[in-house]
Amino acid sequence: MRRGFTLIEISVVISIIALVLYGSMTTLVVSVQQAQYNSTVATMDAIEKALLNYSVAFGRIPCPSSLTTTITSPNYGVEAANPGSCTGGSPAANSTGSGVAEGGVPVRALRLPDSFMYDAWGHCFRYAVNTTYTPTSALTPTSTSDITINDASGVSGSRSTAAIYAIISHGANGHGGYSSGGVIFNAGSTNADELTNCNCDHTGAPNGSYVPTYVQRAPMITTVGSPHTGFDDIVTYKEAWQMTTPNEATNSFLVNGYSRSITIDHTKVGTVNNTDQTNFPLLFAGTYNYLRTTGNGGNVINASGYDITFTSDAAGKTLLPFERESYNASTGAVVFWINVPTVSHTTNTVIYLNYGNSSTSTDQSSKAATWNANYKGVWHLGETSGNPADSTSYGLALAKTGAITQGAAGVFGNAYSFSGSSTSHYMSVADPGDHHLSFGGGQLLN
After folding, report:
1. Burial 114-133, CB ≥16 within 10 A → b, else e
2. Residues 142-164 pLDDT 10s
3. What is the C-alpha separation between 61 and 132, in angstroms, rounded?
4. Per-residue confidence band for 291, with pLDDT thresholds at 50, 70 and 90
5. pTM (2 d.p.)
């Protein structure tokens, strides 16, 4: 006699099959979402490479396109008009504030297909850019209004306070992303970080004022349960110093080396007449272990200190004129004079010390450029022999008379020591004949 299955047995089998199918479906969902995530990241990488190449070719980065322009419009994916503001023309960026413009990826300017406007979930990327980098030859602007990038901690600027652009995908739930028809997508997200990235509320409506702040944190690849509370955005960004290609390495004094900032306290500037100082020769002197050569336990490559340079930017590209008065490779004792174009009396001025770049093997210093024409003569008295040399372009050498000891210890570096108080020990300079010394010659007494 053949026995059939009871209802209980059938229900158990069906339950087992359902569980297997559910597990398979869950695995399939995860695999699909992982593939979409990987595809989106790859697209964002390609956009960043295009931005880098664009910056090399044109000396700037492009304005955003408009997110509200439909795919059938001739302005779809076209860079906003009026670089420098990215507004006031057609097309125009969608949001501006604090010197930053936000819109879509300008695929036409970057010579990318229209498909690069979108992430793998079919929503437009947001692209925000510091507008001071968008005019011609603006990769080293005089002032910046940088983009802030936070991490999961919520601390403002915890990832960056100096991003010059950011690219944002609104992830699997797509909340805040725009469609090809120029319409913002509402997934009902209540996640605070997602609402920061879309600069919108839980209904998808844009906030009243644009704030150039974004959150970069690990996304949730799977959207299990409600998509309203999970974070699945993908954010990438670059700071100015990262916009350097291998071909540009020789233009940077920082590549493969080290950098330290030097901050000039504004409260010590212009205390007499409360004004900024221009073409100011700043003294940088002291003994620093890291400025020893590598053979002496430091980080400097060149025995003459040629790889010690000073720049106005953290990327190490804009060299400041400087004079190397002395450098000791064994101890790291240095005396430099740096011409700082403007030293503010209201805000701190920051310049950068660069060292350890093996590609900087020639002398980058310039005495004449450090001391402008208003300096009629500059004698450091640091020589250990010979006549004192003039650091200015006038090149007036002093002549020694009497008992003068060179190479004595000074307040910083070497100094001269005059014997006693006799007026027979002095140094003099002859009348150069071009009348730039109004006294027509003179003496430097002990």
Report:
1. eebbbbbbebbbbbbbbbbb
2. 445 679 999 888 788 888 888 89
3. 10
4. very high
5. 0.54
32 pLDDT more than 80? no
Half-sphere exposure of 11 (CA within 13 A, CB side): 3
Choice between 137 and 386, residue whose per-residue pLDDT is larger: 386
pLDDT tens, residue by residue, 309-323: 999 887 788 899 999
Q: Which two tokens stand for residue 177?
A: 């992303």
Read off the amino acid at residue 207.
Answer: N
Token pair of 31 as six digits: 């695999």
Domain ranges of the chain: 34-243, 252-366, 373-446
